[in-house]
Amino acid sequence: MILTDPISILKGVGEQRSDSFTQSGIDSIRDLLYTFPRRYLDRTNVTPIKHFQKNQTISLVARVESFGERPIRRGKLFQAIVTDGTGFLTLSWFNSIHFIRRKLKVGLNLAIHGKVEWYRGYSITHPEVDFLESEEGNFQSGKIIPLYPLNQDLKSTGIEQRFLRKIIQQVLDSPVLIEDYLSKSFLKKNNLVSLEEALKNIHFSTNKKKLNDAIRRLKFDEHYLLQILLVFKKEKFRTNKTKPLKDIGPYFGTVIDNLKFELTNAQKNVVKDIHFDLKKDSQMNRLIQGDVGCGKTIVAILISAIAIGNNVQVAIMAPTEILARQHYFSFKTELEKNNIACGLLIGKMKKNDRNLILKGLSNGKLPIIIGTHALIQQDVKFKQLGLVIVDEQHRFGVKQRAILIQKGKNPHSLSMTATPIPRTLSITYHGDMDLSLINELPSNRIPVRTKVVLPQRMQSIYDFIKKECFEGRQCMIVFPLIDESEKSDLEAAIQAHIKLKNNVFSDLEVGLVHGKMTSEEKENVITEFAKKRINILVSTTVIEVGIDIPNATVMLIENAERFGLTQLHQLRGRVGRGAHQSYCILVRRNITDTSIKRLKVLEETNDGFKVADEDLRLRGPGEFFGLKQSGFLKFKIANLVTDDKIIQLARETAINIIKKDPLLISKNNKIIKQMLLETYSSKLNNLNS
User: Fold this and answer.
1) What is the rounded distance in angstroms from the CA atom of residue 23 to the CA atom of residue 4?
2) Is beta strand 412-417 parallel, antiparallel or unpaired with respect to 285-290?
3) Which residues have a Cβ under 8 Å from the Cβ of 539 and sit 6 or more positions away?
4) Strand partners, 114
């Protein structure tokens, strides 16, 4: 038997079951072996009912004593009473419980997992439940029982836990060829078990150590494959030849001389790193990562001045018109002193204005263009594009960034993000780029004071806002806008604006900006706010980036528990940019243990990297950059939050392999190459055989 054999060759897998497996993405023996258990039942982590404590998350094996259903005000409540011999536990399900009700029988053994509550006895609401065969309920056997993810397609053809365990055992009991792509010496040196041992013990292990060793090896494999992909892409980028920008040029020095502030050491170091890359005849691919307000924009301006001094054009792409206009203003302010023309290209422009921009880019007379996605339209052509800068680059797709780069002959590429990224995620998500970190804020920045408040305090908060406004400062009030309920959230923001304008702040000017407004409408409101004609700006998260109003000192965020921590930190960064003390007030309306913990992080630190670490830990990597939706992570068992040391080992190993064998053509690396092509084929167009 080999791993590529179809699953249909297994005893007990007929045509109907084979079709169900295929619909669930399990076609081959390899797919079956790599269907890892979602959790395990082990007598060492089973808690007897008599030892339960309120709010404890437990695993338990218990027998069904009775069950039934009764109507409640909003539907039906289905309950089961179970016992493990040490006490009784009530399991409760509301409404959608047809599967549970159909399967449950008195005397049946259940594997139960959930959080213990207390109401006239111990109870668990909507527990995770697995139905066990009679012999599996005997935990004196010492077995570690795997519990697999089973979807409805599998269940509909009678594929249950016991059957899945049976056919996986059938494979592992057969002479199955499992080739290992790692040498025995490497495994020994890095304390990794063989692939064959790992695949056996991930399913059927006799003790926890063997199980943990199997998990560690399979985690390494997933991280290693992704790191090889990223290192390969990084090396491929470096082979692209381009025009070296060797000279400092005539503009760089005069731009620095005209600055009204001193660059921080971190900014100076990043400029040196980038200039070092620009001097090479290979394409730069670098990311500037820095906290809100650290001064990435002025670094981009200085690097652009170097590029212009080497007679190439620069394109700066931003994800929103608000941010593009903000950059345009910043670049224009610093560069037009040196007679360097800057243009702005956005979606809706007058035809004549747009044509002038396009002409200036194609004949080379417009050296710098700042814009949105409008820059990647087909009719935008450059005479000599030498540097591409993408801000908040994770908001663009890979193809969108590639289209802009393809408008030049391998131009140097510089990305920027004000979203602090945890180190493990940075190694993974940005592993194909060189990283520069601006980890120092300008010395004149006054830290923003952050406070979490309950709705009962809103009147005193409003009084405080009035006080700030009457002293000449301004305020922003942000409402959440969540995709699933976009309409109602938008209506809530609009209704709140009416109430605040007419009742709470009737003696002040209150403006409104949201994503459904036209670009012109948004720009008019923000301009009025910048000119201090609006005291209080009510907004959705459209102002998350790109608003730079030094006079704004109060950021009030409604329903703060509905935002990610990193997004809250971004919003907080819209204040604290001027000479006065600034404040961020987080209104928590849904009080849970999680919301209390999460928002407390913002109160305790202004360090975006600490905030990002906690955000990653609480939300997981899939939500951090929308990686779940992008298909970027092909992980079944690896974890970016907890696998720090494994990621480092995978990264170092990948760098060594690609350095020695860039196209993975040696005998030992052919297995890796095949695995790479199977997992990341869409991202490996340049890996030729």
Assistant:
1) 17
2) parallel
3) 476, 477, 478, 479, 493, 512, 513, 514
4) 58
pLDDT exceeds cutoff 70 at 483: no
Strand duo 583-587 + 552-557: pairing = parallel
pLDDT digits (tens, 9 = 90+) for 408-433: 999 999 999 877 777 777 777 778 88
Band (pLDDT 50/70/90 cuts) for residue 245 is: very high
Please answer whether residues 621 and 566 qualify as being in contact, where contact means their C-beta atoms are separated by less than 8 angstroms: no
528: left (phi over 0), alpha (psi -120 to 50) or beta: alpha
Pairing of β 75-83 and β 57-72: antiparallel
pLDDT band at residue 373 under the 50/70/90 scheme: very high
Ramachandran assignment for 72, one of left (phi > 0), alpha (psi -120 to 50 degrees), beta (any other):
beta
User: What residue has token string 């690396």?
Assistant: 669
The number of C-alpha atoms within 13 Å of 7 and in the hemisphere containing its C-beta is 27
Alpha-carbon distances of 155 from 149, 158, 494, rounded to whole Å: 10, 5, 47
Which residue(s) pair with 147 in the sheet?
A: 39
Q: How far apart are CA 229 and CA 683, in angstroms?
A: 8
pLDDT at 535 over 90: yes
From the centroid of its chain, how far is CA 603?
A: 22
Question: What is the DSSP secondary structure assignment for residue 504, as one 8-state letter?
Answer: I
Mean pLDDT calculated for residue range 208-223: 95
The answer to whether 147 and 39 have CB atoms below 8 angstroms apart is: yes
Instruction: Give yes or no for residue 502 having a pLDDT over 50.
Output: yes
In the chain the domains, ranked by start, together with CATH numbers, are 39-147 (2.40.50.140), 252-438 (3.40.50.300), 449-605 (3.40.50.300)
For residue 82, give every residue at least 6 positions away whose Cβ sits within 8 Å of its Cβ, in sequence order, or none: 62, 63, 64, 65, 88, 89, 91, 110, 112
What value does the CA radius of gyration of the chain take, rounded to a whole number of Å?
30
pLDDT higher than threshold 90 for residue 348: no
- Residue 581: closest CA among 392, 451, 391, 439: 451
**DSSP secondary structure of 228-295:** HHHHHHHHHHHTSB-------TTTHHHHHHT-SSPPPHHHHHHHHHHHHHHTSSB--EEEEEE-TTS-
Three-state SS at 598:
helix
CA pair distance 261, 33, nearest whole angstrom: 61
520 Cβ contact list (under 8 Å, min separation 6): 348
- DSSP per residue, 81-95: EEE-SS-EEEEEEES
Among 21, 41, 23, residue whose Cα is nearest residue 32? 21
Nearest to 46 by CA among 31, 32, 62: 62
CA distance 224 to 675: 11
DSSP state of 683: G
Phi, then psi, of 258 in degrees rounded to 5: -90, 0
**Rounded Cα gap, residues 47 and 61, in angstroms:** 9
Query: What is the chain's length?
Result: 689
CA dihedral 347, 353, 354, 355 (to 10 degrees): 170
**Tokens matching residue 57:** 């998350």
Helices (H), 500-592: 519-530, 565-572
Q: 82 has which bridge partners?
A: 64, 89
Closest CA to 326 of 289, 296, 366, 286: 296
